[in-house]
Amino acid sequence: MIIVLTGIDGSGKSTAAHALVNSVAAHGGKAVLLNNHAGRRTMSVLSAKTGIRLPKRLAEALETTFRVWNVLVSHLRASRFEGLVVMDRHLYCQLALRTTKGLPRGRFLPWLLKALPAPDAVVHFDIHPGEAHRRIMARGTDDETLEDLIAFRDAYQQLPEYQDFVKVDATLPPAELARQLEQLIVKGQQLPAPPAGA
């Protein structure tokens, strides 16, 4: 079973993903977390250190290349893994980012999405951009502006695939989010139900 997690920066995807994988393991299941990053944070840090800002289209091309490579590797690993595969981010994220930069969807990413095995669920972490920005400022590792996050939120909602996403309240504590995600898996009859009160 493959579950993809999407959402704007600061929505808690990575934290909840780790909590979910740990919870599944604690209940006797097999789970693996695969990250499909695009290298945005690394490029942002390098840009800040060097003072060199890449042209929009070049930066997006590099991000897309990294993202596509990671997604392909993740799907290859998923095909060899018997259990739950949790993918933190996917090509949906890159399509949303393209929209925030005023770039068209293009043909390659939508084609690749259809060519790859469809995830059993795409779970979108729904959060107000203001709260996400507060979290980002608190951790001090990113430089996303509130305007960037609003644009990213809007771009996700404009994706034609968005209507099929499973939305969850990203303001919930990570443990509760993980429990909601695990219940989604249980409904798919992929894992035994967690013990009562767990």
From TrEMBL:
The keyword ATP-binding applies. One of its GO terms (biological process) is dTDP biosynthetic process. Residues 7-178 form the Thymidylate kinase-like domain. Keywords: ATP-binding, Kinase, Nucleotide-binding, Transferase. Signal peptide: none annotated. GO terms for molecular function: ATP binding; dTMP kinase activity. It comes from the Bacteria. GO terms for cellular component: cytoplasm. Belongs to the thymidylate kinase family. This is Thymidylate kinase. It comes from Arthrobacter nitrophenolicus. The lineage of its organism: Bacteria, Bacillati, Actinomycetota, Actinomycetes, Micrococcales.
